[in-house]
Amino acid sequence: MADSDFSIKIREAGTVSLLDVSGRLTSFETGALRDSISRLLKQGRRDIVLNLSGLNYLDSSGIGELARVYVTVVKQNGQMKVVGLSSKIEEVLKITQLYQVFPEFPDEEAALKSFPEAQPKRY
Predict the structure, then answer these.
(1) One digit per residue, pLDDT tens: the chain, 123 residues?
(2) For residues 45 and 53, what is the distance between their CA atoms, to the nearest angstrom?
(3) What letter does residue 49 receive in the DSSP assignment?
(4) I want to staple 47 with a disulfide (CB 3.0 to 4.6 A). Which of 16, 53, 84, 97 is the partner?
């Protein structure tokens, strides 16, 4: 079943790391998300955009892990922003009140522009 394939693809846009999260985020996959965020923080990459447009399922473990990695990033003086919420995932975040925590943007471009140091240098 292709829907259950979980993956995280990391891209970079200047100082910002973009994580494309897809598949199902459950207790089986939370470690992969935690490890990816930890690696980025160890590299000094503290500005993160989670692109959840490919995420099609989120259980309580996944919700807890999103909250945990958010706190981890903020404690490291970083920022985490979210784009690409499907109506299903957005509903889950509203029910759990997490939508108040995660700065959500309509697209990656808007999220990237919200990081002051990510503004492209004009010469």
Answers:
(1) 344 589 999 999 999 999 999 999 999 999 999 999 999 999 999 999 999 999 999 999 999 999 999 999 999 999 999 999 999 999 988 998 888 888 899 999 999 999 976 455 444
(2) 22
(3) E
(4) 16
Compute the distance between CA of residue 82 and CA of residue 65 in angstroms, rounded to an integer. Answer: 14
DSSP-assigned letter for residue 103:
-
Nearest to 34 by CA among 59, 67, 5: 67
Full-model pTM? 0.88
pLDDT tens-digit series, residues 71-95:
999 999 999 999 999 999 999 889 9
Whether 89 contacts 52, CB under 8 Å? yes
**Stated length of the chain:** 123
User: Which two structure tokens, joined as six digits, stand for 51?
Assistant: 């692109």
